[in-house]
Amino acid sequence: MANTKELKDDKSEEKEQFQETQQLIVFKQGAEEYGLHIDQIKEVVLTPNITKMPQTPNFVKGVANIRGNIIGIVDLEEKFGIKEATTTAEANKANNYTLVIASDEYKVGLLVTEVPNTLTVKSESIEQSVNIVHDNNVEADYIQGIVKLDSRLIIMIDIFKVLNEDEFENLATAQDATA
Amino acid sequence: MSKEEEYKEIFLAEALENHEELNRLLTQLEKKPDDKKSIDAIFRITHTLKGNAAGMGFKNVGNFAHVLEDLFGEVREGKLSLDDSIFTTLFKAIDTLGELVNAVKDDKTVRFRGIKTKLEVLLKNSKEEETEETEIKAEEVKEKPEKAKKPNSKKKEPETEIKPKSSAKTAPPAVEDAEVVSIDDSKQQEKSQQPEEPKDTKISFSDLVQVPVRKLDNLLNLVGELVIERDRIIAANSGMVNANEYARLNRISSDLQYSVMDVRLVQVGFLFNKFHRVVRDAASSEKKKATLNLSGTETEIDRNILQIISDSLIHLIRNSVGHGVETPEERKKVGKKEEGVITLNAYSESDVVVIEIKDDGKGIDASTVRKKAIKNGLVTEEDAKQMSDKDIVLMIFEPGFSTMEQVTSISGRGVGMDVVKKAMDSIGGDISVDTEQGVGTTISLRLPSSMAVKGTLLLELSSETYAIPLSYTEAVVSLYKADIHKVSNGLVATYLGNTISVVFLKDVFGLNQNQSVYNEKLLHRSYDELHPEKKLDIVIVSYNNRTVGIVVDKLLQQKEIVEKPLMKPFDKVKLVNGVTIMGNGHVCLVLNVSAICNMIFSKSFSSKSTVSNF
User: Fold this and answer.
1) Which CATH number fits domain A23-178: 2.40.50.180, 2.130.10.10, 3.40.350.10, 3.40.190.10?
2) Global pTM?
3) Residue among A51, A105, A175 minimizing CB distance to B574
4) pLDDT tens string A42-74
5) Which of A101, A172, B36, B333 could form a disulfide bond with B572, CB atoms 3.0-4.6 angstroms apart?
6) What is the interface pTM, i.e. ipTM, of the complex?
């Protein structure tokens, strides 16, 4: 189903070439669909073996070797409170794919259960300002917008705001305080 | 190629580069004679060249560069103004310098005293500021031939050795003529120099390639990955093919790895030689007398490690002068020579390089350190009483510690020594202090000789594999639960007659995640869950004279690994020093023993336990 949708989108893109479009990668977290800009995505790989890392928050499942790079693996479903906390061993069994996301500073892998799809949307169809009941664990403005497409609703997120400083940094300062 | 040859080559490469730079700067300077930057740069380069040449024992180059340095020192201070005639002399001097540098390579004789004398005269004259210019010139003319001739005639070697000159015998007068002319008319001199120059300015290529360390780092990383990949392939195909199948691959990749590592090795002497100055400066500002002795300078160590510890060594040496060596009067009183001796010694010991900083000063007074540590809140009074003198002395490496009553400019600011400890921890080194009152102090730094390959002990915990650097491990023992006892909120066991602290690695990792619910009995958690007859695998590690037994699930094997540092966002994780990729492609964490020890002991200290001291 997702594939036919994609094809349709591609066609609509051809018709309205003059209109500004954006390519997204759409992946499922829990029951909802989330979207990321395609230029943030490095690759999608089968999830390699994850090694647990001490002194990190629970939603950080650990590190894995992806093509010789050591990449931190994050479970967003856990971070967003969509599902119960799992251990690294469980994560190793459960999640099939890892979405590798690169910023200037570091790379991080997101655990997903299904292969993510690409999707082309018109820039104007992204609703920028949305009133949402926020989770106070996460920085409020990590949601960049909502894409509505037929009956689908895709939540656009800024992944680096989600993972931003807060937990990683807090962790470090907490360590400093006790050390 | 012998090491000496290699250093000669490095010197030559650097010197030729310096020479080129001097030429460029001087040309620039000629266009803008008051360009302060160029003058400073020239001064600096001649200074470096002088130092390097003197260090290598090339006296001619050294002396010549020294004269140039002095001259530009005068120019820099504005005592000597640059005019056309000086420039021609200077260019000629730089050419001579180039010849001298080349002479190091081919052992040719280069006549340089004439031009050197000329520079010296310039220098001398600039000091007699009031002298009229004409007089200077006249003097020069008079002095020149005399001074120039003497050394020339003294030289035994006939000038035939000078390559470009057509007739050796006629050469000396020709040069002298040129010099005399130059004083009268610089332009004409330039012309007369022209025929000589093309022969002298031969483009020379060095046999050395300078490579940025960054590129070497990259190369080393790649080799590291290659080795990991090799192990992976061998592991994956073991049993399927003959074991000899991979022998060649093994050999080639190992050779490659060691070659790359070898490229990064430098002699510690490079760094040590810079410390003569540090000792001199430190001693003179403290009004003390001290000399530096070097030994084991040919010991080799990874260039990056040398860089990391260079600041630490400066601190340690200053400290030896500042705190160790007594004032000349005090030294006389106790019957020592007025001049204190600081000895820097280096030697290799299997996988590690040991650097010792030794002074013959007054030694460290443990009771002063003890008082100070208590006063500064580094330890509680009860703890301090139980700590041995050796442990107490190590407190000088704690942050915020300083024994000198008065703060002096070079030591006693309370920073510095903890920098040493931090640097050592970052590279997995270890510090020990050996001190005797009135006799002196020896501080030994044990450093890994290469950062690339580490010998480690692999172990298993909660079905994950971890590695502990062998540099910290003392032994591996098996104990029954009954051998381990609860003391206060820690655990202890007996090892070789000593009581040591024991921790379960699982508990140490647990401490972090449950920080908020941290309670004093946390380190007992795994112990309490154990079956009473369970046999435990324990790795005995030692760090800063503290010995700790770390309980793990299972000991696996010893393995050489290529460690990769933790990248963002994990660079703040303290318990893990780095990672390595195993043969099966899994990531293995390399434990940071110093962080684990610090963590346990800081917790114990803060909760006023007494088990941590033994």
Assistant:
1) 2.40.50.180
2) 0.56
3) A175
4) 888 888 888 888 878 888 888 998 877 788 888
5) A172
6) 0.75
